[in-house]
Amino acid sequence: MKGNGFRIFLAVIAGLAAYFLMIQEIKTEIAGKADSSIVLRIDNKLSRLEAFAQDRRSFEAEFKVFRDETIRRLARIESLLENDRGKK
Q1: What pLDDT shows up at residue 12?
Q2: CA distance 2 to 6
Q3: For the CA atoms of the chain, what is the radius of gyration?
Q4: What are the residue ranges spanned by the domains of the chain?
Q5: Sequence-separated contacts (24+) of 15-22 with Cβ below 8 Å
Q6: What is the 3-state secondary structure (H, E, C) of 20-80?
Q7: What is the Cα–Cα distance from 49 to 55, expressed in whole angstroms?
Q8: What is the rounded distance in angstroms from the CA atom of residue 10 to the CA atom of residue 3?
Q9: pLDDT value at residue 61
Q10: The whole model's pTM is what?
Q11: For residue 61, which of 19, 22, 69, 6 has the smallest C-alpha distance?
C-alpha cells in the first residue's frame, strides 16, 4: 500500500511537470510568432511609459523647488510673527 501512494505521488508530480512544461512551450511558441504590429504596439507603450517616468522625474524636481520655497516663506513668516510678538 505504501508503494501505491508513492506511485500516485510521482504520477501527480510528473503530470504537473508536464503541464507546466507544455504551458512554457506554448508561451515560447506564441512569442516566436509575435506579429510585427504587436511588437510595434509594445514599443509604443514602452515609449509612453518612459515619457511618463521622465515627466514624473521633472515633476518631482519642480515639487522639491516648490517645497523648499514654501518652507523658506513659512520660516520668514514665522520669524516676522515672532518679532511682532516680541515687540508687543
Answers
A1: 83
A2: 6
A3: 32
A4: 1-33, 34-88
A5: none
A6: HHHHHHHHHHHHHCCCHHHHHHHHHHHHHHHHHHHHHHHHHHHHHHHHHHHHHHHHHHHHH
A7: 10
A8: 11
A9: 78
A10: 0.40
A11: 69
